[in-house]
Amino acid sequence: MSVIGIPQNTVEMLQKHNFSIQKKYGQNFLIDGNVLEKIIDAAEVTQEDCVLEIGPGLGTMTRCLAERAGSVAAVEIDRHLIPILEEALAGYQNVTLINEDILKVDIGKLAEEKNGGRPMKVVANLPYYITTPIIMKLFESGVPLKSIVVMVQKEVADRMQVGPGTKDYGALSLAVQYYAKPECIANVPPGCFIPRPAVDSAVIRLARYEEPPVQADEKKMFALIRGAFNQRRKTLANALNHAAGLNLSKESVENALEKMQLPPNVRGEALTLEQFARLSLLLSKDR
Description:
The protein is an alpha/beta fold. Helices cover about 40% and strands about 15% of the residues. The protein folds into two domains: about 5-210, Rossmann fold (3-Layer(aba) Sandwich), CATH 3.40.50.150; about 220-285, Helicase, Ruva Protein, domain 3. The strands form two sheets. A seven-stranded mixed beta sheet has the order 4-3-2-5-6-9-7, with helices on both faces. Strands 1-8 form a two-stranded antiparallel ribbon.
């Protein structure tokens, strides 16, 4: 296990390179070796794997991944971290450093170049302020992925796993559960990081489905889901009637809900993924 994960050594590394932590990048460096092991174990990395690491930071986890994986592509947005990473990873020939914003990286092209288009594994300690866009890009890009193991804000991890009827249930819950099976690996308190974040964190594993659990036109179904949760306090019929770009009448939504034996005043937060898929199909036919 890398000694960089020890708090004192992390501080020394930051001081040596005169590195200033950037709040705009949401930088919180993991310093707990036990949590690090749990992440690596959950990813089930072998010599057969190509791993995409998002936000390698100081290279602590990158080194552990490099020892187990066939190859690692580490994408880091902060150019000031690149000299630190180059030093930390000097002995590893199977690591490629990419100084870019992951949201602008062509992941499909990367998978083709680094892994011949075969499924990759993703491991990341994600910046909390852009967790959802990154997760959605990974899923919606159509890139072959075996699994995603990420450190996220605990509240976000909870949202990924919950079902209908709870306050945390929403568009992210449905999207994650459409593409993958979520499993919480560990809860991580603020003291496991430098600097300490203001919230608890969690490690979550998203095992990608080979086939989605429901049959649906993804684009149409997720347009409905976004419309339902953008105005979640309204009834589903009212929310979809007012949703930009859907062009749905309140009457058509209520007719579809009646066919599904759901009350006309039901809210989106009460519907399961299967029910959203069926509603999407009914409304498409109605048109």
